[in-house]
């Protein structure tokens, strides 16, 4: 699985970054209330799209779907961001969006 390969690469190259990601980012920050994981996925995806961090999008799209977002909601968020983050950012994000909900 690509996520596993990326994680293993991070562990082998930057073990401390992998540890911080697992323990602090996903073990603490993503678990805090009052935002749900679904809300955090939407906010994270909006930031990644606006900042042009396309290499992170595929994984976070799948994570967002697993956290309860629908493909239709993601398409609508991307359409909305076209006006705030720019057309190229929105078009790039659409190209990274999975074809179907998993």
UniProtKB/TrEMBL annotation:
<feature type="domain" description="Carboxymuconolactone decarboxylase-like">
    <location>
        <begin position="15"/>
        <end position="97"/>
    </location>
</feature>
<dbReference type="InterPro" id="IPR052512">
    <property type="entry name" value="4CMD/NDH-1_regulator"/>
</dbReference>
<dbReference type="InterPro" id="IPR029032">
    <property type="entry name" value="AhpD-like"/>
</dbReference>
<protein>
    <submittedName>
        <fullName>4-carboxymuconolactone decarboxylase</fullName>
    </submittedName>
</protein>
<dbReference type="InterPro" id="IPR003779">
    <property type="entry name" value="CMD-like"/>
</dbReference>
<dbReference type="GO" id="GO:0051920">
    <property type="term" value="F:peroxiredoxin activity"/>
</dbReference>
<dbReference type="Pfam" id="PF02627">
    <property type="entry name" value="CMD"/>
</dbReference>
């Amino acid at each position: 699985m690509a996520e596993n390969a990326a994680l293993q690469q991070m562990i082998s190259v930057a073990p401390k970054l992998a540890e911080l990601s697992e323990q602090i980012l996903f073990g603490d920050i993503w678990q805090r209330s009052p935002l749900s994981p679904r809300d955090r996925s939407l906010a994270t995806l909006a930031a990644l799209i606006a900042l042009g961090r396309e290499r992170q999008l595929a994984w976070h799209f799948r994570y967002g779907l697993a956290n309860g977002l629908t493909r239709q909601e993601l398409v609508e968020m991307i359409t909305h961001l076209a006006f705030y983050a720019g057309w190229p950012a929105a078009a790039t994000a659409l190209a990274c969006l999975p074809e179907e909900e998993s």
